[in-house]
Design a protein that fits this description.
heterodimer; A: 251 residues; mainly alpha; 3-stranded antiparallel beta sheet; B: 223 residues; alpha+beta; 7 helices; Vacuolar-sorting protein SNF8 (chain A); WH-like_DNA-bd_sf (chain A)
């Protein structure tokens, strides 16, 4: 039988040599590929840098543009905040990381300062309004989308910041670790419609709840969770409950 | 869902209210929210927006909520007292209208008033935090407010004596409380004045002197 490469010691040498050649070839090939990639990356970087420096102001200033930009990042699988360095090189180029962090700090500021009166639950629109106020006119406009995104970046802090949907297109931001049961979500939704005021009668008439159920839901929010305030001078029902996070505060 | 023809928030203002609160129209077009805004009273005091919140007037069963409410009321009472230069606050002021405190203890725009039991609770907390003292002592129906602490009044008194060239002269308490030229101390209640003088005495900046028709004080330059 004729073996490719023959037999004996010489064949062994030959085999080793061809392995070495293959290895060399593969190294060259992958080196080429790596170089190629580096080149592409460098190109991508410079293009990105150009884009960033050209549109930096628009990204910071214009909420629509920012949204489009964030979506573009998401679709190509790039996180503007991620990177080897602090804030990421993306963030470094765009200054967007700082922007997002700064917004995060302001969100925490508003949530903490309003917590005593709203029990740690704030309506998203109200939060946006108060954060905008804090930033002043010069800060440029921010959107609910920006706030939600920033709240996501707060998640690793474990402070329990969370956006919750209370239905009817309304969202609330919870800044304390607290579970809301289904009935409370209903109460919150009604409070949103009524400028903060809820009564047992309202829940009975609109939701067909029994008085016991309405009373239990409201008393829990009042006594256990501190999410609402009692009004004993209500003209319509005598007793009403007010949810500060659904009230529109202007100060 | 049947919507009331007369939404509950309707009673929040009257058509002829000179300063109607702004209405926030929701995107669905219903009038759903009223902005709780600051309000300037006829006497020129700017009420914080919380004063327009109906539940602010009710004593809260949740202790931590009530602590917030008490804190806001305390701030409001002290700041209004300072604004109007009134020291005395009585439970009666909450019971009967027509006194110095009407603008604070009631809100006619939302038809709410502070019940005297709630005021009593607030005053108790204020006394506990040395923001007021019961006066006369041994009762809990009226207080003197420390919108300036006795320590602050001591400095005010000392500075007043210096700026009006009355160091080393003997002043009667009456001359301090009702000076011929109005001063920051005009009308200061005697118990607060006494505390202020005692503080100055302790730092060798005043001497109490018994004079023919009562007591007087000699203010000294001190160190």
């Amino acid at each position: 039988m004729h073996r490719l490469g023959g037999v004996g010691i010489a064949a062994f040498d030959r085999q080793q040599q061809s392995q070495r050649s293959f290895a060399e070839l593969s190294t060259t090939l992958s080196q080429n590929q790596v170089n190629n990639l580096h080149e592409q990356l460098a190109q991508f970087r410079s293009a990105l840098l150009r884009f960033a420096s050209t549109h930096r102001d628009s990204i910071k200033r214009d909420p629509n543009f920012r949204h489009a930009f964030q979506q573009m990042c998401a679709s190509i699988g790039v996180d503007p905040l991620a990177g080897p360095r602090k804030g990421g090189w993306w963030a470094e180029m765009l200054g967007l990381g700082d922007w997002q962090y700064e917004l995060g700090v302001q969100i925490v500021d508003v949530c903490v300062t309003t917590r005593e009166r709203n029990g740690g639950l704030i309506e998203l629109g109200e939060l946006v309004r108060l954060v905008s106020k804090l930033r002043g006119v010069a800060g440029g406009s921010i959107t609910e989308d920006d706030v939600i995104r920033s709240i996501k970046t707060l998640k690793p802090l474990g402070a329990g910041y969370e956006v919750i949907d209370v239905g009817g297109g309304k969202k609330m931001v919870r800044s304390v670790v607290k579970e809301l049961d289904e009935d409370q979500a209903v109460v919150l939704a009604i409070a949103q419609e009524e400028g903060g005021r809820v009564s047992e009668e309202m829940l009975m008439a609109r939701k067909g709840w029994t008085q016991d159920r309405a009373k239990a839901a409201l008393e829990n929010m009042l006594l256990r969770d501190g999410l609402c305030w009692l009004d004993e001078q209500d003209e319509i029902n005598g007793i009403a409950y007010w949810i500060p996070s659904a009230m529109h505060w202007d100060e | 869902m049947a919507r009331r023809a007369d939404p509950p928030s309707n009673h929040w203002y009257e058509a002829n209210d000179p300063d109607p609160p702004p209405l926030i129209i929701s995107s669905s077009g219903f009038r759903t929210q009223m902005s709780l805004s600051p309000h300037t009273t006829p006497s020129g005091y700017r009420l914080p927006s919380i004063h327009a919140a109906p539940p602010f007037f009710t004593q809260q069963p949740n202790p931590s909520t009530q602590a917030t409410v008490t804190e806001h009321w305390t701030r409001l009472i002290l700041s209004y007292g300072r604004f109007k230069k009134i020291w005395l606050l009585k439970l009666e002021d909450a019971e009967v209208a027509g006194n110095d405190w009407d603008e604070i203890l009631r809100n006619d725009r939302i038809n709410r008033k502070l019940p005297s039991s709630h005021l009593g609770h607030i005053l108790k907390q204020m006394v506990a935090k040395n923001q007021a003292i019961y006066d006369p002592p041994k009762q809990t129906r009226s207080v003197l407010l420390y919108w300036r602490t006795p320590e602050e009044w001591a400095e005010v008194l000392h500075e007043w004596a210096i700026s009006t060239g009355q160091l080393n002269t003997i002043l009667t308490f009456y001359e301090i409380i009702e000076p011929s030229i109005p001063s920051p101390l005009s009308g200061i209640p005697l118990p607060i004045l006494r505390k202020a003088i005692n503080i100055l005495t302790a730092t060798n900046r005043a001497q109490i002197i018994t004079i023919a028709d009562g007591e007087g004080v000699r203010l000294l330059a001190g160190k």
